[in-house]
Amino acid sequence: MILKDIHYDQLRSAYRSIKDTRRRLQEMLSAADKEVSKYYHELEKKDIDELHYETFLTGLQKELRKRRVIKEELRGIQVIYLTTKETIENLNESLQRANKRSEKIKEQLNTDMTIYEVL
After folding, report:
1. How far apart, in Å, are the Cα atoms of 93 and each of 7, 20, 54?
2. Which of 3, 33, 85, 105 is 20 to 30 Å from the Cα of 10, by its Cα?
3. What are the pLDDT digits (tens) for 59-81?
């Protein structure tokens, strides 16, 4: 394996990890939204007199705070994800061009030496 391939694989691995983290946070946000919706449905269905205000409001507040934490974490990961995705896409194109040039030069110089033979 050539040195550039090692680093390229490391970048792709980091991108996959970021993408997976983003997916898990999106799932957590969806679950948090469902929990908040349960409170809204309870509020909608019951008469005001039937609600235990303190318990209801404390539970709703707790769920809203959890949701906020998830959203803020997702916001940061989203920036990293989008930047990394664009970088990987640009890198793919650039590496293809560089590989074509390298092959052409190897043919012109009639060599198949690798970096490991130089090191």
Report:
1. 16, 24, 58
2. 105
3. 999 999 999 999 999 999 999 99
